[in-house]
Amino acid sequence: MSETATVARPSGRSAAQCRPIELVTGFTRHAEGSVLIRLGETHVLCNASVLDKVPPFLKGKEQGWVTAEYGMLPRSTHTRSDREAARGKQNGRTQEIQRLIGRSLRAVFDLKALGERTIHIDCDVLQADGGTRCASITGAWVAASLAVRSLQEQGKLQASPILDQLAAVSVGVYESNPVLDLDYLEDSSCGVDMNIVMTGSGNLVEVQGTAEGQTFARPTLNRLLDLAEQGIAELMQAQKQALQG
């Protein structure tokens, strides 16, 4: 797996090229923080709501909470599937992803500084083409930042409880080559699938990596991490631009 090897990706992108990134803030009217993130053909709407309460296990502890829910609209994929969340149940994948989003956000929050309130992020996949969990994390951080800005503007927070920037991207081994930002065609046939969550200071929050039918060596892992770091830097630049707009 050569670092300089070329690979024919379905999208025509180079191995180290992200899909086009677009972040549209203020996408919905009522949420304290709202952003539509488009990562190629993957589109996720992230709405942040501020609740003046905390879960029961945090009552009286003088700290806040950040949590997330994740769901896919019935025709966000090639075929229609029932939205389980609307029926009061969630499958294991949905639960795993929303827990990932929540703990990733909490890694960059000072929950004491947030006060006894909850920031609840709803991540709704409008259209899926791979990388929905990573797009959700990247968009959720922007939505949370907008919600915090709203609290500051109302005088409810003197300083931001957000400690660092946060974004996520997928990497993998496709046609025996490490590639950045897998779309669905690549994700469904790759040899290695990995999701990386990082902070703006370059620290890792989570690394989810699985060999899909083939093992991979340590140098390949290093290359995948390098690609992820590059892609996350691009995503974070887009986040900054969206918040300045």
UniProtKB/TrEMBL annotation:
Coiled coil: none annotated. Pfam families: RNase_PH, RNase_PH_C. Gene3D superfamilies: GHMP Kinase, N-terminal domain (3.30.230.70). Phosphate binds at R93, G131, T132, R133. Residues 17-143, 166-230 form the Exoribonuclease phosphorolytic domain. InterPro entries: ExoRNase_PH_dom1 (IPR001247), ExoRNase_PH_dom2 (IPR015847), ExoRNase_PH_dom2_sf (IPR036345), PNPase/RNase_PH_dom_sf (IPR027408), Ribosomal_Su5_D2-typ_SF (IPR020568), RNase_PH (IPR050080), RNase_PH_bac-type (IPR002381), RNase_PH_CS (IPR018336). GO terms for biological process: rRNA 3'-end processing; rRNA catabolic process; tRNA processing. It catalyses: tRNA(n+1) + phosphate = tRNA(n) + a ribonucleoside 5'-diphosphate. Its EC number is 2.7.7.56. Belongs to the RNase PH family. Homohexameric ring arranged as a trimer of dimers. Phosphorolytic 3'-5' exoribonuclease that plays an important role in tRNA 3'-end maturation. Removes nucleotide residues following the 3'-CCA terminus of tRNAs; can also add nucleotides to the ends of RNA molecules by using nucleoside diphosphates as substrates, but this may not be physiologically important. Probably plays a role in initiation of 16S rRNA degradation (leading to ribosome degradation) during starvation. This is Ribonuclease PH. It comes from Alcaligenes pakistanensis. The gene is rph.
